[in-house]
Write a structure and sequence with these properties.
88% helix, mainly alpha, 80 residues, 3 helices, transmembrane helix, 2 domains, elongated, Pet100
Length: 80
């Protein structure tokens, strides 16, 4: 066990550490460059790549819907 000064120091660190982290990460100039770099990672698609992605999603959804419809039809035919 430590003396009371050590306990006060520990309590101050428990209180001030979260406050310091909160203060640092809420300063926009500290993380502005990092945010810009992260945004650039997500905006790398060209228009052509974007169109290909949209077409792929539409085709996938059509196949999935067709599969669901055929499953529903087979269930309906089994009941009747």
């Amino acid at each position: 066990m430590g003396n009371w000064q050590m306990e006060i120091g520990r309590m101050m660190s428990y209180i001030l550490f979260p406050i310091g982290i909160y203060y640092y990460f809420n300063q926009s100039e500290n993380i502005e460059e990092w945010i810009q770099n992260e945004k650039k990672k997500f905006n790398t698609l060209t228009q052509e790549e974007h169109n290909e992605l949209v077409n792929f999603i539409e085709e996938y959804n059509k196949k999935r819907e067709f599969r669901r419809i055929t499953e529903m039809e087979t269930q309906y035919n089994e009941v009747n």
